[in-house]
Design brief:
The protein is α/β, with parallel strands linked by helices and 285 residues long. It has a four-stranded mixed beta sheet with strand order 4-2-5-10. A four-stranded mixed beta sheet has the order 6-9-7-8, with helices on both faces. It is globular. It starts with a strand and ends with a strand. The protein is 39% helix and 22% strand.
Length: 285
């Protein structure tokens, strides 16, 4: 067993605050480059090119002025990978994460979009908490944090399907492409398409969410899955939906697949759509 490393809770709180301030006002360079290349190299539709140009201008303004990329500053999703040799001192980590979220949304003047009860009173919590927190215990003495403010224009277009093993690769390809095409303009295309395959239904959903965070210029390291990503992306972009749903060649910027071992009797497939901004930020403590 390695030497225990103490991490003060206020360091985590400050990190979460900084990450959400950054994520809501500045997209990753990979996304920016993909939009830029789409405008200058790929998109042929005048409407599509106009939309891509406006998106890039919007991102420039948001980054330079420190204002939100989108009015929907999302529900706060946080991935915590905690080294098993890390000892967190001074408080409870989930409370610290939520304090960091609340501080960021207050300081950044970000829209608070979380309600206490999903069905009945739907009263706004007033500070965009609680966050959705996914925690993994991993080897080592480090703590890795990824945050993503998840807007619901795209989240609402996500889908789950339990396929039989006989559905095969073709069944997965059809379900993913059909989900994106049926969503049309609703998820604010061009989108990033996260796909989780295998495990149980909740495992596939978390895989799909994590898949949206992979850089758009990185294919799956396994060639069979990389080829499937390519085929699905081509199928989606042949739909003609285009940027903002106004027509064109770029409906999605990337399809990212993550998979896990599955039961012999079924294959869970989840499609998690993310809008063109695909906001996220990360740090290792």
């Amino acid at each position: 067993m390695g030497e225990i490393r103490n991490v003060q809770i206020d360091i985590i709180e400050d990190a979460v605050k900084s990450l959400f301030l950054k994520a809501n006002t500045s997209i990753g360079q990979d996304i920016y480059n993909a939009l830029f290349d789409g405008l200058n190299k790929t998109e042929e539709s005048p409407n599509g090119r106009d939309v891509l140009g406006q998106l890039l201008k919007n991102h420039d303004i948001a980054r330079e002025e420190g204002v939100p990329i989108c009015q929907d500053t999302g529900m706060a999703v946080v991935f915590l990978d905690i080294g098993q040799d890390v000892h967190i001192t001074g408080g409870y980590i989930e409370e610290a994460v939520n304090r960091g979220v609340a501080a960021a949304y207050e300081e950044g003047y970000f829209r608070k979009s979380v309600v206490t009860d999903p069905l009945f009173d739907r009263r706004n919590t007033g500070d965009n908490t609680p966050a959705v927190i996914h925690t993994r215990i991993v080897p080592g003495r480090l703590l890795h944090i990824i945050v993503t403010p998840k807007g619901f224009g795209s989240e609402n277009m996500s889908a789950l399907k339990m396929l039989t093993p006989a559905s095969g690769v073709e069944g997965v390809e059809e379900f993913v492409a059909d989900t994106v095409i049926a969503a049309g303009p609703n998820p604010c295309p061009p989108t990033i398409v996260g796909v989780g395959i295998g495990g149980t239904m909740e495992k596939a959903a978390i895989l799909a969410k994590r898949a949206t965070l992979r850089p758009v210029n990185e294919s799956h390291p396994e060639s069979r899955y990389a080829e499937l990503e390519r085929r699905i992306l081509e199928r989606i972009n042949r739909s003609g939906i285009g940027p903002a749903g106004l027509g064109g060649r770029i409906t999605s910027l990337a399809v990212h697949i993550e998979y896990a071992p599955a039961h012999i009797a079924g294959t869970a497939v989840v499609v998690n759509l993310c809008c063109h901004a695909c906001r996220h930020a990360q740090v290792t403590l």
